[in-house]
Amino acid sequence: MRQYHLEEFGGCGDGLFDNSEVFANAFSAISGGGTLIIPTGTFRTGPLHLTAVGCTIHFEAGASLSFIAEAERYRPVYSRWEGVDCWVMHPLFLVTDSTDVTLEGPGLLDGNGAWWWEELGKKRGTQRTPESAIERELAALNPGYRSQGGGGGGRQIQFLRPPLLQIYKSSNIVIDGLTLANSPFWTLHPLYSRHLLIKNLTIENPSDAPNTDGIDIESCAHVVVRHCTVSVGDDGIALKSGSGKEGIANGVATHDILIEHCTVKRAHGGAVIGSETAAGISNITVRDCLFDGTDRGIRIKTRRGRGGRIENLTFTQLTMRDNLCPLAINMYYRCGSQDASAFLLDAQPVGETTPSIGKIRVEGCRATGVRASAAFIVGLPEAPVTDLLIKDCHLGLASSALVDIDESEMYEGLPPIEGRGIRVRNAHLRLEGVTVDGVTEPVVLEEGAELSSQEAVDQGASFFEA
């Protein structure tokens, strides 16, 4: 297989030259097979688009792609944004309709997100409708955008920021060893793809960078994420499958995913399911990971209108340190909702957009330094969380620097709670060999809660199988 070097196409890594055309020519050369070597240097570029079969892009040590922060360069493409299929800004680096492609090496993809984050901050304070040329163009392409939900990214102004690296409708893709940093929006976004191996990545965004999830695996199957370190401004490693009626009709589920030996720091959640759950998420294993300083450790979030069945989830041998809440299952997730009926406490009619959650196993996990509550488990009255087992786990509250219990999760419509133990509402929970330290009431049972195999010992702080 032929090797190509970026210099052959006129590549210049001085951090000033615009290499957009250089990469277009290089990608064309390897589209049918071959290896492209990107040498040490800072290669400034606009959006990149790769469609290829049987190729490798190898980043040498010190090789960096620096993406130009000019919104008008990122021309509309049809993709998905916060769970809704629509026209969006072109990803910074898009791999589409490709097979047997590898991106590897100790290189850096730098999204130069500071401009994008600052621009969003300005718009959130003053702007209510699309104003810039590309926002108006996207609004015209997406005529129904006003009625579309989201996760809180700001769809109503159509400033649909691009992800850093998107893998779209592709298979047998390997991403190995890269650093992805400063993404305008979600960082790594596999979408409608199968048989992916994501390993040895470092993903870094500032903790206050909006909506900069680390890895969002959406409507994908047979994906392995291994030995990755993620430190970002939103969820760490998340699984999604579309939102609402469109996602249900689309029907492309996320399933058969393995996440192991990963570290997530500072993020809103370590291993996250949702909130875009429409086509279903199943057969997920998360094991032997560290969630260090994340707001939540294990996080499952959805609400009425999102739809989808979430089931067969296994979380084992997780270490969680200094979280707000190590386990959160939330069917009253508030962000991005425009419908107050999603948060009613009374049971509502069950329909195609009613989400459901069941068959979850949390085993051999240890959480210390918990600052809000030991767990937040809240289902819907018409669709309780079922078949949830927590086994051989330790949940320990911090001795100081506690925060308000409401910081456990982002919810709407629920009554306040006083206790910092395991909150259970509209859920069927089984506890075996679980300890909860630092609380007077280990489990707080609310409306619709069912608890089995409970035997309290040690001043009500421990549970063992009956």
Q: Could you provide a short overview of the structure?
A:
By secondary structure, the protein is mainly beta. Strands 2-4-7-12-15-18-21-24-27-30-33-36-39-43-42 form a 15-stranded mixed β-sheet, with helices on one face. Strands 1-3-6-11-14-17-20-23-26-29-32-35-38-41 form a 14-stranded parallel β-sheet, with helices on one face. Mean pLDDT is 95; it is low at 456-466.
List the helices and strands and how they pair.
Layout: E1 3-5, E2 14-18, H1 20-30, E3 34-38, E4 41-45, E5 48-50, E6 53-59, E7 63-67, E8 76-81, E9 84-89, E10 93-96, E11 99-104, E12 108-110, H2 114-126, H3 133-141, E13 165-168, E14 171-176, E15 179-181, E16 188-191, E17 194-199, E18 202-204, E19 215-218, E20 221-226, E21 229-231, E22 235-240, H4 244-250, E23 254-260, E24 263-265, E25 269-274, E26 281-287, E27 290-292, E28 296-301, E29 309-316, E30 319-321, E31 325-330, E32 356-363, E33 366-370, E34 375-378, E35 385-391, E36 394-397, E37 422-425, E38 427-432, E39 434-437, E40 443-445, E41 449-452, E42 456-457, E43 462-463
Parallel strand pairs: 1-3, 2-4, 3-6, 4-7, 5-10, 6-11, 7-12, 10-13, 11-14, 12-15, 13-16, 14-17, 15-18, 16-19, 17-20, 18-21, 19-22, 20-23, 21-24, 22-25, 23-26, 24-27, 25-28, 26-29, 27-30, 28-31, 29-32, 30-33, 31-34, 32-35, 33-36, 34-37, 35-38, 36-39, 37-40, 38-41
Antiparallel strand pairs: 8-9, 39-43, 42-43
